[in-house]
Amino acid sequence: MFDAEIEEKSRDLIVLERAREKIARGWCQNRWRKDGAVCIVGAIADAIDDVDQVAVRRGHNCTHWIDLMDALGAPRADAIWNDARGRTQAEVLARFDSAIARLSAQPAGRG
User: How is residue 27 annotated by DSSP?
Assistant: First the structure.
C-alpha cells in the first residue's frame, strides 16, 4: 500500500509512527476504541491494517504484533500498561517515541 515509504523505512517503524499518530489524535483506556480514540493495542492493530494489507488478509500480522509490542518494551502486556490507573496520554506517547527512536537507530531492512 505504501511501497515507496516501506522501501525507505522498516514496516515496523512505519506502523509505530502511524499508531503514535492515532494515539495523539485520541487516547482511551479499558477498551480498544471509544468515540474515535484508541488504546495502545487498538492503535497498533489499526496501523498494521493500514500499512500491511497483504499480511492482514492472509492472517500473518502476528510477527508484526509481537515485534511492535517488544519494541514498546512490554510484550503482550501493553494493554495492561495502557489501562493502569493514573496512566496518561503523554506517557503512552512517550513510550511510542522511545520505541520509534530505538527502531530508527537500527539498520534498514528490519521490518
Answer: B
Identify the sign of the CA torsion 4, 8, 11, 16: negative
71: phi > 0 → left, psi -120 to 50 → alpha, else beta; which? alpha
Q: Do residues 106 and 7 lie in contact, with contact meaning Cβ atoms separated by under 8 Å?
A: no
**Phi and psi (nearest 5°) for 27?**
-125, 145
- The structure's pTM equals 0.75
Q: How far apart are CA 27 and CA 43, in angstroms?
A: 9
- Strand (E) or helix (H) holding 34: strand 33-34
Using one digit for the tens of pLDDT, what is the confidence trace for 45-87? 888 888 776 555 545 455 566 666 666 665 555 788 889 999 9
Strand partners, 29: none
Element housing 37 (H / E): strand 37-38
pLDDT digits (tens, 9 = 90+) for 17-52: 999 999 999 999 999 899 999 998 889 888 888 877
